[in-house]
Amino acid sequence: MSLFKHLSAILFALLPVGWVTPALAHMPSCLGAEPGKASMVELPGSNRTVLLYLPKSFPAPRPAPLVLLLHGSGGTGGEVLAHSRLAEAADHNGFIIAAPDGGIPLGKGFVWNIPGVPAVSGRMPSPKDLNDVAFLQHVVDSLVVHRCVASDQVFATGISGGGRMTSLLACVDAGRFAAIAPVVGLRAGIPLASEPTRPDPASCQPSHPMPILTFAGDADRTNPIAGGGAPYWQYSMRMAETRWAELNGCKAAVARRSVVADRVYEEGFTHCRDGADVLARVTIGGTHEWVADNEALWAFLAKHRRRQFPAENTPR
Is residue 3 a part of any domain in this protein? Predict the structure, then answer.
């Protein structure tokens, strides 16, 4: 056996420069993105691009988890990647980040197309606007097809308008995502027209339970946790939690408890179907910014896997 190893080492040393083993040759390329840096890549089959961040450990022996990171209204993928500092957690934990831009231009940035809900500009999305749900589905599926992302470990997070877009993905495409973690933006459908302080049940009918950890600040004046604010907001974060708890079949409420000294408290619902708990972490004095603890965010997401249901085919 030692002779075999010795001969193998000699043969490998004699291989031409640039030659790689078949196993390495089939490692995922992730559309040409470079590990350890943000890379803007073209998305096959689309005229839109996406900002990818591959962890420094990439490529790994198997496809990596994916976190969609969605910017706030008027922002860009590059801005939220920088401000959230989520790339540090990606390097530490080995997940890929995709930070695309929304489909509706606004100032120097973009907003997400959330049907039936006015943007921060007050403009209602029109049928002529780009379909951001379809685009984000295409982002996920393209990365799965290129074998750099594990289809059962696809997650989404985002800040403000990106958090609302993350919530929409959970409403309309729960089968594609294993868990979500909106930041200052959890919703459970659009505000009910006849009673805006409640979500419209018809606007959020997920096909499967969705595990949720949301982050917020109790001094947020843009998306107040008590509700009110802009027309797209209106109902409280607690109302959103309660609606998701109903959808997930949760059986127990979590008594408010401190999780980081006296600065952060947690509330929500547990004992839900398929382990799809609905939890919220609120920073006391926190404002409309990235208030998420990135390691806690990833620890929650990493516990979950997308279940394969009989009627589904992956990738789609």
Answer: no
The radius of gyration computed from the CA coordinates of the chain, to the nearest angstrom, equals 21
- Interatomic CA distance for residues 34 and 41, integer angstroms: 10
Beta bridge partners of 156: 68, 180
Is 239 among the domain residues? yes
Phi, psi of 102 (to 5 degrees): -65, 170
Helix (H) or strand (E) holding 91: helix 86-93
pTM metric for this prediction:
0.88
Report the SS3 class of residue 102.
Answer: coil
Count of CA atoms in the C-beta half-sphere (13 A) of 294: 19
CA distance 292 to 269: 19
Q: Summarize pLDDT for 269-292 with one digit per residue, the tens.
A: 999 999 999 999 999 999 999 999
Q: What is the CATH number of the domain that holds 256?
A: 3.40.50.1820
Range of the structural domain that residue 125 is part of: 40-301
Per DSSP, the three-state class of 81 is helix
3-state secondary structure of 170: helix
